């Protein structure tokens, strides 16, 4: 199924841009809270599994991608800003703190094993 999606001309054209992996991961982070809400996941599971574990891993991966692809540093702000917009629309304001946490994990991913140097 993923291969069929990749063969769509519009998707192929989008994937030619260098920053598209960052945008795809950000779209995933934006859509997962909405999917978890539609599945009627309890709030504690949504915050615990999605906001703390999964999104932190994805944000670390995005930091690594930014370093690997050699994108500008302002791409670090895309995921936290989009996440904060989703939080303002749908969730409690205390979840805005996760935007800062994701930015920190992205910076850790950007540093990639240079934390102690």
Question: How would you summarize what this structure contains?
Answer:
The chain has one domain. 73% of the residues lie in helices and 0% in strands. The protein has helices at 2-6, 9-14, 20-38, 43-69, 78-90, 97-111.
Can you describe what's shown?
- This protein has helices at residues 2-6, 9-14, 20-38, 43-69, 78-90, 97-111.
- The chain is mainly alpha-helical and 117 residues long.
- The protein is 73% helix and 0% strand.
- α3 (20-38) runs antiparallel to α4 (43-69) and α4 (43-69) packs parallel to α6.
- It has six helices and no strands.
- The chain is globular, with a radius of gyration of 15 Å.
- The protein has one domain (28-111).
- The mean pLDDT is 85.
Shape: globular
Poorly predicted ranges: none
| Total domain count | 1
Largest sheet: none
The averaged pLDDT comes out at 85
Category by helix and strand content: mainly alpha
Number of strands: 0
Strand proportion: under 5%
Quickly count the helices: 6
Order of helices and strands: HHHHHH
Fraction of residues in helices? Answer: over 70%
How far the N terminus sits from the C terminus, by CA atoms, comes to 44 Å
Alpha-carbon Rg, integer: 15 Å
Features:
117 residues, mainly alpha
Please specify the SSE layout and strand pairing.
Elements: H1 2-6, H2 9-14, H3 20-38, H4 43-69, H5 78-90, H6 97-111
């Amino acid at each position: 199924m993923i291969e069929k999606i990749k063969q769509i001309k519009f998707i192929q054209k989008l994937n030619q841009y260098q920053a598209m992996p960052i945008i795809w991961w950000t779209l995933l982070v934006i859509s997962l809270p909405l999917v978890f809400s539609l599945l009627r996941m309890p709030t504690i599971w949504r915050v615990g599994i999605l906001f703390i574990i999964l999104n932190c891993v994805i944000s670390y991966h995005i930091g690594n991608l930014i370093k690997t692809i050699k994108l500008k540093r302002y791409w670090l702000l895309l995921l936290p800003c989009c996440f904060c917009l989703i939080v303002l629309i749908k969730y409690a304001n205390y979840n805005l703190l996760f935007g800062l946490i994701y930015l920190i994990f992205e910076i850790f991913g950007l540093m990639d094993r240079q934390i102690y140097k």
